[in-house]
Design brief:
The complex is a heterodimer of chains A (about 110) and B (about 110).
Chain A lengths: L4 E3 L2 E4 L5 E6 L6 E7 L5 E8 L2 E4 L8 E4 L6 E5 L8 E8 L7 E2 L3 E5 L1
Parallel strand pairs in A: 2-11
Antiparallel strand pairs in A: 1-3, 3-8, 4-5, 4-9, 5-6, 7-8, 9-10, 9-11
Chain B lengths: L3 E3 L3 E5 L4 E7 L4 E9 L6 E7 L4 E3 L3 E6 L4 E6 L8 E9 L6 E2 L3 E6 L1
Classes of the chains: A mainly beta (about 110), B mainly beta (about 110).
Amino acid sequence: NAGVMQNPRHLVRRRGQEARLRCSPMKGHSHVYWYRQLPEEGLKFMVYLQKENIIDESGMPKERFSAEFPKEGPSILRIQQVVRGDSAAYFCASSLGQAEKLFFGSGTQLSVL
Amino acid sequence: GESVGLHLPTLSVQEGDNSIINCAYSNSASDYFIWYKQESGKGPQFIIDIRSNMDKRQGQRVTVLLNKTVKHLSLQIAATQPGDSAVYFCAEKGTNAGKSTFGDGTTLTVKP
């Protein structure tokens, strides 16, 4: 039973380009969460989605960032016009239900040159 | 707003000793608490959880204690091993809240 799958593992972008991060939740999980982690820091919540719906996006920057979790396919975190400050590890997690524990993927390390 | 904090950013113990990692939270409505372990270059891994109707829960070599009166959570690791070296995060969920709020982490180093 595969865990949470994230790709790519590493992503390098130049300033102004777009970054697309993908996340496939664990089988049977319909709740997906995205977190950002800077070096030597904790995980900061960004967005919580259920199939086709954004439930909580209180941690998402208002501009340039968007997330989706379509009926078919992985969840996508999209960052437009990336800046150096976007460089971080982005982790996706999924859960069986809203009140259940999270299972994390291995993350995508985004580097903006 | 809610926050989750840890008392110490680093902890160094001798192999074989017991480790205790502490965590304080501020949201009285939190009713579910989880400890995660994160090794370098990897995603957080679930260790143990506890709901607010309990004050103690034990796993294999790990115990979580919850003191709701002072909003304090601790993780005890028995007979700490080199493989336990990692960053440990506590996280909390409030009632009907999907997201988990994470503390900044405690780095545990186990000396051989």
